[in-house]
Design a protein that fits this description.
By secondary structure, this protein is α+β, with helices and mostly antiparallel strands. It has a single domain (25-268), classed as VTC, catalytic tunnel domain (mRNA Triphosphatase Cet1, Chain A, Alpha-Beta Barrel). 16% of the residues lie in helices and 35% in strands. A hairpin with a 4-residue loop joins strand 6 (114-121) and strand 7. Residues 1-37 have low confidence and may be disordered.
Length: 281
Amino acid sequence: MNDDTASTSCQSNSTAGDSATPGEIREVSNGVFTLHANASLSPSLWKDREAPAFELKFQVDERKALDLAAWADEHLNLDPHADPALNNSYRVHGTYFDTSALDVFHRSPGYKKKKYRLRRYGDNEMVFLEQKRKSAGRVAKRRIQIAQAELDRLREIPTDADWAGNWFHRRIAVRKLSPSCSISYQRQAYFGQNAEGPLRLTLDRHLRCRLADRLAVMEVTDGLPMLPEHVLLELKFRSHMPALFKSLMRDFALMPQSVSKYRSAVQALGLVGPNGGTPHG
């Protein structure tokens, strides 16, 4: 068994319409397996929700994005939250935190590796409190879901030690973080699994941002465009580069790029100058 094959005890190539039982692993393409139930989670949120994963990013034009989606339809599973009315996508809204001096953006000492944000999906009234940590090229996420009405508890000093969001409250308080900007976009997502864990491919379109001045996660409908004329492709995996993604990058001539939604939003909003310094005027 090599890095991109799974155990022969897995169910192979299920036919359309078959229903999988929870916990059952099935092969959806050569060497790519899916686990029914939570397999659609991002690899950095797999199992204990702290496992580090690689995230490769690419900016592509719409024509290539359509070709990539067609490839994903053939080789992976469509995310179960896909909305046919949104071209098999779903809406994502986030509010990102920073200091008044933008220490997270500038990667100041003590702020280089972690980002904090609020995230909401579509019209859902539940909100995720998220910490995103990057180290040695891998990303690990920690998050907890709360009701949107509970966001005001992030203002409490001290907060209830038994509250599920207490860990998030402590971290933004000690770092003096507050809402900096909000970002919305439309995500088309696919998932699968190989012997080393889950795989995920996402295509993000129609990114828009605006300044944020309160503890809320609202849809950005009239904000400034980000990455205009581009779609943001992300490939996510736990360990070695899967053979499936290697062939994808080769066939589509994809080269990884350093792209951050938050950094792009700060620049689009004019919070920093062209070279990342304080804007003039």
